[in-house]
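tool=predict chain=A
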Amino acid sequence: MAVPSFNFGTGNWEIEFWLRMLDFTSNYGTVVGNATSSFVSSSFYIMVFGDGVPQTDVRRKLAVGGFSAITGSNVYEAAGNPLCLSDVMPQGKLEHIVVNKVGSLVRIWQNGALKGSGTSNAAWNFEANGLLLGRNGWDGNASFLSAAIVDMKVRTVPIRTAAFTPPAAPAIGLLREGSAIGTNHPSYDAVCNGGVAVASVGFAGYRYPTDGAGGTRLAAGLCGSSAPQADATISEASGLLGRDLEFGGPGVYPFTVEGLPDSQKARVTLLRARDKLVVREAWSTASGTGEFTGLDLATKFIAVAQDPAGLMHPCGAEHFPKLPGGAP
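tool=predict ok
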């Protein structure tokens, strides 16, 4: 099962994901990079600078750049390393991140707000000598990312071009706080264009075929263990996150709560249909819409909502989840 292509050339592209930093001990904790063994012309990255880098102004910030990220000149361009930066990333908190390139403008969006931008006419290829998620090929152990990368979406038609409201955070368990899992930096070599992605260090995940907005989607989370996990193939069929072996999968369950008072939100509870076991809870938007994500496609669920004012009886709907962007 192929993972999304990260070889964008000089065209437009967008990578959207959730990131939860566990620590900043790696100087160059890489989210997306390539496998070139030295920092040369084909090197591109999306990374978080750690506490050990000498430039104090970039520490704990998400960065986008490369060896020749401005013009693709095959000559080192200091201004492209990094090309742009986010605000300081918090520790232990999910942050919604979008990195995209529209025309020659490369931008970082953090929680829906524009935080950094730069100009680039280079050909962006994160797959040079192999795509790496969770590390890069030239910084060795200093590039291992101590974080969870969740629900990554890859598009060649960017949809984030102005300030926006981020989607609801994924309703999945990510890390056991205080455990030794932080010693296991998530890292896997992703073989593109017909290959598979292999998780080799404390990492589990799965791939969605679509994100519902013209792109592909890769979702992943850390395993709940303090020891490295055995190698595992990440494919569309695996469908389980390390922290949700019973209900996890690629399915989504969208819902709409009707009849809400103006500007009111409803608390929605998701139950397993056969025994009414509570699986997820979420708030709707003010317009009553929302969705539960990361669900097993073969399990039927019931979504139950209650009028926040207590004037009407609770209402519910029973369905199987669907693939993102697909029919119910």
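Confidence is low (pLDDT under 50) at residues 172-243. The chain has two domains: 7-234, 251-319.
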